[in-house]
Design brief:
Layout: E1 4-10, H1 14-31, E2 36-43, E3 46-53, H2 59-74, H3 80-88
Antiparallel strand pairs: 1-3, 2-3
Length: 101
Amino acid sequence: MPGGLLMDVTGIGRTESAIRAMLIPHATELDQMPGLGAKTGTIRGGVRLTVTAREAEDAKAIARVRGLGFIGLLTLGAHHQRHHLAMARGQAMPGHGALTR
């Protein structure tokens, strides 16, 4: 898509629930990052994630989004440390839903 990536992430059963629990809050994190815009929409079986450069002419940001791809985009943001500490403690982060074992 012009300016970035549009990704449909789908699954069934628990996988569908996990996709929604992970991607919707992560898009909020991405949307707060300088130079990026992110949004989600629910689709059958999961989530449509759209990540773009905030400035349509920012070729470097567009290349970064496309180069990182889905998995690379999931690594961005400073919430990961808090997230993993909460997981280790058996706690959920706000917006991430309940932690199940």
